[in-house]
Design goal:
It is flat, with a radius of gyration of 20 Å. The chain has 5 helices and 2 strands, in the order H-H-H-H-H-E-E. Helix 2 runs antiparallel to helix 3, helix 3 crosses helix 4 and helix 4 runs antiparallel to helix 5. The chain has 150 residues and is mainly alpha-helical. Strands 1-2 form a two-stranded antiparallel sheet. The longest helix has 32 residues.
């Protein structure tokens, strides 16, 4: 029973991610999440999981570095949430039912969370890169000074 539940959940996440590869949303992030769930029970899912994790990380880093991409992703997320909310409020939109509306809202919220995380990580990375040598970095670690030429 547990294996069947993992297979269903992992498959749904993976298929949702594949759909979001062509639609606005965090496609590779959901593909990686689905494959991670599947990899807990199915060894064949580990190899594509590595690829999906790499692509998801690249996408998150790109959104973190590029404020225009981040703004576009947030705009797309807001459109998704709005479409889902309007549908759940009773407006009849073509090709959208209650289930699709909930998936749109969740995808939009997930996308906003991904953008916020990516931007936060980029700012933290920039702060670490600009910290002078010999200053604490947290956790008791110090940034090593570069060796000087004598």
């Amino acid at each position: 029973m547990k294996t069947a539940a993992i297979a269903v959940l992992g498959s749904l996440l993976t298929l949702s991610g594949v759909a979001l590869l062509v639609l606005p949303g965090p496609g590779f992030v959901l593909v990686a999440a689905g494959l991670a769930v599947l990899a807990t029970r199915f060894p064949w899912a580990r190899k594509p999981l590595d690829y999906a994790k790499e692509k998801a990380q690249e996408g998150v880093e790109e959104v973190g570095r590029n404020p225009w991409r981040a703004a576009g992703a947030v705009l797309a997320a807001l459109v998704l949430v709005t479409l889902g909310g309007v549908t759940l409020a009773g407006v009849d939109l073509p090709f959208i039912n209650a289930f699709t509306a909930v998936v749109l809202i969740l995808s939009g919220l997930f996308l906003i969370g991904t953008v916020v995380f990516a931007r936060h990580e980029d700012k933290a990375e920039q702060a670490r890169a600009h910290r002078p040598a010999g200053t604490p970095q947290g956790g008791g670690a110090y940034r090593a000074a570069r060796p000087t030429a004598d």
